[in-house]
Amino acid sequence: MILYRGEIHDTKEQNRLLDGLEEIITEVLQRPAPTAETVIAACDGLARRVLSGEFDGIIAALGLDKRFTLAQAAAAANLLRRDSLEFKLNLELGPDWAGAKTVTPPHSGLTLTKEVLPLGVLFHIAAGNVDGLPAYSAVEGLLTGNVNILKLPQADGGLSVLLLHALTQAAPELADYLYVFDTPSDDLPAMQKMAAMADGIVVWGGEGAVSAVRGLAPTGCRLIEWGHKLSFAYVTPKGETPEALYALAAHIADTRQLLCSSCQVIFLDTEDREEVRAFCRRFLPALEEAMAAGAPLDDGSAAQVTLAQYEQRLESITAPGPEVFYGKGCSITMGEDGELELSLQFGNPLVKALPRAQLPAMLRRHKGVLQTAGLICAPEEREELAMALLRAGVVRVTGPGDMSRTTCGDAHDGDYPLRRYTRVTER
Question: Among the residues of 319-373, which ranges form H helices?
Fold first, then answer.
């Protein structure tokens, strides 16, 4: 499906619609953009409809309820409520960001008018690992007055078109600022047309996706990269408790380790491999319990994990490899180095020894991919360890169960997106 000027179109009309889009956008950009209040009011109304259950049946009909629970839908809807969006705007751009301001710079003898305006046209290339994220990315563009072209991920399932269409019905003045296409990533001619119209390209994804987008971006286009990042837990002997371990296990089970904020590696503050082995044995029952309590994997994910574990077992027969602790529906691999890396995911974390003295150097080696650290330590250790993690490049330090929490005003990978989606003008 395609959303174009507030109307739903069939995918086969993509090229015809794209051919006329530059002319439309040029005309739209000559008008004053919809105010943030217009966007906030429409989003708040949409959020209340979602929270009232109005969309539950549609979400189920799209098949999204198998991975996008109603509780998750409610949490996402809360991000669109008036108080959340007002808080976000004030935090990221300041309470008096909108409108022209007359200033007289010292020693200049000049009187100037400064104004924060939209970047212009944002081309969002969304990822499919978080349901609703593509629509929220477009909302961030709307808040700052931009025209938004959104390329949906394959896994979206129609949810973003549903939500953004409802938004344009509530506020028809937003229709000319939203263009949503379900274009496959290998349709390079269409992607190039979208990129050519953009003043900024917002890309959610891994290194491969970002590299591909760099080739599409026209000269002078602002490239705004979100992800792919890696996250981890750090555990000290003084901080380990059964409650903390289960909170970490529940986080791993709930996120399936698919998010940038999901724990991939559990680092232990030790040099002793026997302590690592003992930790794996203690943690495995908690992980088994958390995985059993969570929603079952879909067939594709379950097959992926089974195949990866089968290959791992075969390799261990033919050549020495890492020690693996297998549980029901999960496993723990005892790593042989102290480096951050991606795990098998879906409830299969790595556990490695990493004394705190070696922590800063290791993190600096991975400085381009750091995001969240879930810290399990004694209260008297937390401030020192948290600052060591942050100074080494980690973006966020949380408790073990909060690594993937989402709140209004969250930074994206250490930056406020609304600042990236605007420009400061002078006249």
Answer: 359-365
